[in-house]
Amino acid sequence: MLSTAFPISPGWPPRPPWYSPAPLPAPTLVGMIATQTEVIELARITIRRISVSEMDNNVYLLTSKSEGTQVLIDAADDARAIAGMVAAGSGDCSDWGNLQLIVTTHSHWDHVRALEAVATHAEAMTACGASDEADIAVPMDLTFENGDTAELDGIELEVLELRGHTPGSIALVYRDPEGPAHIFTGDSLFPGGLGKTNSPEDFRQLFRDVTERIFDRFDDDTVIHPGHGEPTTLGAERPHLREWEERGW
């Protein structure tokens, strides 16, 4: 069962294209590029990740070990590969396992190419940041704002709004009771810098949100799972905050 509520309380190389996808129509091909599933075992959930498409988009699956409940983050492309990951996570022969919620971190087309197919076949609820809803063609069942909580059987995720890359970009926080927090940041925070913004004002907004809502609140061992590329930790990135602010990206 799903409910939403406010919680109680040395240089970086030139940016790969995935920081800001060109405004092109979404491709219709599936099964283009998908990496082998990477698995992280935590105390109460399992995190799975595959990279899909020519843009190295990460698709994440969280599975509750006690309830079997599953949450998908960014149905970016290749519904067939996503179905395989969900089935592997469910431990049975069902293509779509117990997938209950699909969260889209932001509205850029490279993060939603498989959303309609996955949501339709899995009969899962869809969600995104409230300010990005209008830019996503697939209807949303839920919209999130900063501080909301997505609570399912065995999985609880805090929503952080990180405005700037898009108006409604969000990150999702999973707090492991026996280890560091895990934050799924979409295209707002990467190893080595922030996601692309289109104006100095947007950059300042994103830098402020990332600083205040992530770096000021979470410990250095917090794991960052970005929308593209490899994970990092806040401890690895924290020393570079001044550099990011000065360079403006």
Walk me through the structure.
This protein has 249 residues and is an alpha+beta fold. The chain has a single domain, classed as Metallo-beta-lactamase, Chain A, CATH 3.60.15.10. Helices cover 19% and strands 30% of the residues. The strands form three sheets. The chain has a seven-stranded mixed beta sheet with strand order 1-9-10-11-12-15-16. Strands 2-3-4-5-6-7-8 form a seven-stranded mixed beta sheet, covered by helices on one side. Strands 13-14 form a two-stranded antiparallel ribbon. β3 and β4 form a beta hairpin. The longest helix has 16 residues. The protein is globular. It starts with a strand and ends with a helix. The N terminus is likely disordered.
CATH architecture: 4-Layer Sandwich
How many beta-strand runs?
Answer: 16
What's the oligomerization state? single chain
The CATH topology is what? Answer: Metallo-beta-lactamase, Chain A
- CA distance, first residue to last residue: 40 Å
How much strand content do the residues show? 25-35%
InterPro entries: MBL_Glyoxalase_II (IPR051453), Metallo-B-lactamas (IPR001279), RibonucZ/Hydroxyglut_hydro (IPR036866)
Pfam family, one: Lactamase_B
Protein name: MBL fold metallo-hydrolase
Domain Metallo-beta-lactamase: 56-228
